Structures are given as C-alpha cells and as structure tokens.
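Dock NAP; give full complex structure.
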Amino acid sequence: MQDNPLTDKVALITGGARRIGREIARRLHREGMRIMIHYRASRDDANVLLSELNTSRSDSAASVQGDLANAAAPEQILLETVHTFGRLDALINNASTFYPTPIKDATEHQWEDLMAINLKAPFFLSQAAASLLDEYQGCIVNIVDIYGRRPLKSHPIYCTAKAGLIMLTRAMARDLAPSVRVNAVAPGAILWPENDADEVSQQRIIARTPLKRMGTPAEIAAAVVFLVRDASFSSGQVIAVDGGRGVVP
Ligand SMILES: NC(=O)c1ccc[n+]([C@@H]2O[C@H](COP(=O)([O-])OP(=O)(O)OC[C@H]3O[C@@H](n4cnc5c(N)ncnc54)[C@H](OP(=O)(O)O)[C@@H]3O)[C@@H](O)[C@H]2O)c1
C-alpha cells in the first residue's frame, strides 16, 4: 500500500452515494484514498456507504450534504472537505440531473436545473477547489456523456449542458495548468435512468453499441482511477467508455 501514489490522498465525489458515483467512491477508496461523499437527498445510501468504507479502513470516509442548485453549496462543500481531511487531491464532478426537454414544451425551470447541476456547479466547485488542488498537484475529473458530443433526441438542454462541461474540461485544463490536470470520462449506456422503463429503446441502444452490452459502473470507475492515478501527462482529455458507440452513426 505504501507504494501506491494515492494512499491517504483525498477525493471529493459529488453525487457519490448511489449508482455510478458510489462505484467511483468505492474504487478510489480501494486505491487508498480518503473519500468525501457528497449527496443531496440520498442520506441513507450515503450512511451505508460511509459505514462500509470506514469499516474497511477507519476514518477514511465522511459525507457532506448539499443541493448544488444552491449557489452557496460549492463553497460549503469544499470548506467541509478541508475541515474534515485537511487537503484535496481529486474533485470528481459526477452529480447530474437527466430528463427529456422536448423543445416545444421545455421550461425555463428545466433549463436552470439542468444547467445548474451539469455545468454551473462543476465550474464553481472547481473554482472553490482550485487553490487546494494547486497546492497538492491534484486533478479534476468531470463525468460528461457521449451525448455531449452528439445530441440525444428530445434532450437538447442536457446535451448542451454536457457539451459545455466538455469545453469547461478543456478550458480549465488550460487555465489551471501546470499544477492541476483536468480530464473527463464520457459514459455511454451504463445504468438506465430509474424512471425509464422503455425496453424497446433500451434494446435499440444496445443493438447500436458495437460491444453489444451496457457498460458497468466499475468500468467508469476504472477510467476515473486511470485519470487520477496514472494519466500524469494528460490534461484536457475526454475518455469515452461507451462500448464503441461513438464510432457508429
Ligand atoms: N447512467 C448512465 O448510464 C450514464 C450515461 C452517460 C453519462 N452518465 C453520467 O454519469 C454520471 C453518473 O450517472 P448516474 O446515472 O449514476 O447519475 P444519477 O443517478 O442521475 O445522479 C447522480 C447523483 O446526482 C445527485 N444530484 C442530482 N441533483 C442534485 C442536486 N440538485 N444537488 C446535488 N446533487 C444532485 C443525486 O444525489 P442524491 O441521490 O443524493 O440526491 C444523484 O444520486 C452523471 O454525471 C451522468 O450524467 C451516466
């Protein structure tokens, strides 16, 4: 463990209590990191994960609540992280909202929500974290989406927000260099949205995926570990973890 460059370093994962964020938290913890799990509503899930991580290594995980629609949240989440662990080495911007917004009936509230969680919050979390990451030669990993590069039908606002997060990855890679690396992971189909039971379109997506299956949260977490631990000469990059979906029209 002592040879592991991540031992005792600190990662903050937004939306880290469930689904893909939880797997990223588990995997970075397994690599030796101490983990700050951010959540908004999933307090019970956060507590279960905390207990799991702290049982395997004491005082290695903590949690912080915050609604990223609230402009004061990024600063508070960072303050809590520093107060608990005293440093920050990796910020993983994973929290997201995702739902259709067909152009004819999309609302301003939907625009504000999708932009706030998928784009504005990662910017202001990164801003709040920048001096700490600079001090510890840390990194940022933004979880984007293959639909930030090609539009998903009826999701124009979500796709635009993720496209913005891809540009933000590149812009911050330039502006936060040379101390801080900034990269992104673009998942394809990994976990269906919890309110989406449309099996026909799910099967259609898998049929158009060259590897003919969905990905797993563990495969996203593996790409995050690569960017945090191994990609020491990479910044401004987006790694697609999409079963090859990006090469098919
Ligand atoms: N699932 C996929 O197949 C897939 C595909 C492409 C890209 N992605 C991207 O991968 C990442 C993880 O995907 P996922 O499906 O695991 O995400 P998810 O379940 O849709 O959302 C992750 C977390 O975001 C948090 N969140 C939502 N609104 C918030 C708010 N206002 N303030 C603070 N936190 C908020 C929620 O935390 P609480 O539960 O605590 O409220 C939620 O658990 C996302 O960035 C997503 O866009 C996922």
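Observed: The first strand starts at residue 10 and ends at 13.
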